[in-house]
Amino acid sequence: MNILITGGAGFIGSHVVRRFVLNYPEYKVVNLDALTYAGNLENLKDVENSSNYSFVKGDICDENLVDKIFAGYNIDHVIHLAAESHVDRSIKDPLIFIKTNVLGTGNLLQTARKHWSGKFEGKRFYHVSTDEVYGSLELEGGYFTETTPYDPRSPYSASKAASDHLVRAYWHTYHMPVVISNCSNNYGPNHFPEKLIPLMINNIIHRKPLPVYGKGENVRDWLYVEDHAAAIDVVFHKGKDGETYNIGGHNEWKNIDIVKLLCDLMDEKLGRLRGESRSLITFVTDRAGHDLRYAIDASKIQKELGWVPAESFETGIRKTIDWYLNNQEWLDHVTSGAYRQYYESMYG
Ligand code: NAD
Ligand code: DAU
Asked: Per-domain residue ranges for the chain?
């Protein structure tokens, strides 16, 4: 089995690549990643020399390159994670989101169709998506299910919704075997420190202000990244063609409560006085169009495919804090920009 994993140098992608390279030595894994600011090959140091792993630096929008990869590696499966992923960046600069997330997905679909056309048996295009396509819930407003109508509200979520629609169009129109999953907020090791949890951890370490948008009342549903990678493994192997699976941990938190929890746990770890880090909390201007609440109903994947998260938030958040404290070099390389030289030193 030759699997193209896109975005494998990013946060979630690196956990998926590691899982597939280590757990399935019989598969050949090709990681295609453009190494944007979010791509970091230091995430994959432990598997980069594995004989069933190859890395290609390149853009999913590059038609010639993607065509060459399909032909050269005889790709028969795709797990597509490459994307622009940060909502705040999408508000400042939407076009790169439209290019990568919509056109890039279109190019991958079209190239797969060209190479697989008429021979779809044993092929699969797996598109990794987000719960943000469903819009925003009221605080007591139930859960997102697989049949919740799409209502994306940021340029990021609109671009992901568009890519989901394209993937389904290739299923209905060309019978390409596709599967989609829509997951809630991930956290864990290798998370880029522009996102809430790693940003707060980094700022607490350095005693910098902790910017909480609005009043911190918005709710997110958090899942440990390795549980997401395990769910992707299950959907990839057992999911049904044409289906969508929601993935989430039934673990809702108001942002302000997460920030306070991180402050308290880290004061303990760093030997600081209780309350010291909470004094860094700074309420700042709210995100434009800030979605109030996301919450996933994950009963379909549980019932049909038998997946449940292994990690509780209690254990997952402690593991995450420990990982950042034990990997401050990783964090320093990311914040200083040094991680961008890793590709040249390895492959240059
Ligand atoms: P990330 O930003 O950490 O990583 C994205 C990766 O894609 C990076 O390695 C980047 O270099 C690469 N990339 C970007 N543009 C590219 C292009 N044009 N060509 C090739 N590679 C490119 O993102 P993430 O948080 O790991 O998210 C991965 C996927 O999972 C995304 O599709 C995202 O929408 C989805 N998702 C994320 C979350 C979450 O909480 N982070 C939740 C649900 C779904
Ligand atoms: O729900 C899945 C989505 O989760 C993924 O599709 C996205 O790729 C991923 O980035 C994430 O989106 P969010 O916007 O929910 O994540 P973020 O970490 O940016 O913000 C989480 C919450 O914290 C959100 O309500 C905004 C708030 N926030 C964020 C930052 C960066 C703050 O209050 N302060 C901050 O500095």
From this structure: 2-186+224-250+294-312
Query: Up-side HSE of residue 112: CA atoms within 13 Å toward CB?
Result: 32
Q: What angle (nearest 5°) sits at the alpha carbon of residue 39, between those of residues 33 and 43? A: 105
Give Cα 221 to chain centroid, integer Å.
14
Q: Which helix (H) or strand (E) holds 248?
A: none
pLDDT tens for each residue of 263-307: 999 999 999 999 999 999 999 999 999 999 999 999 999 999 999
Cβ–Cβ under 8 Å, residues 231 and 169: no
User: Does residue 9 register a pLDDT over 80?
Assistant: yes
Asked whether the predicted pLDDT for residue 346 surpasses 90, the reply is: no
Whether 125 contacts 176, CB under 8 Å: yes
Mutate to test the pocket of ligand 2, among 255, 259, 290 (most ligand atoms within 8 A of CB): 255
Distance 38 CA to ligand 1 centre (A): 8
Of ligand 2's atoms, which has the minimum distance to the CA of residue 87? 14
Question: What is the residue whose two structure tokens read 């690196």?
Answer: 14
DSSP-assigned letters across all residues of 19-87: HHHHH-TTSEEEEEE---TT--GGGGTTTTT-TTEEEEE--TT-HHHHHHHHHHHT--EEEE------H
Q: What's the CATH architecture for 2-186+224-250+294-312?
A: 3-Layer(aba) Sandwich (3.40)
* Distance between Cα 273 and ligand 1 center (Å): 37
Distance from residue 82's CA to the centre of ligand 1 (Å): 5
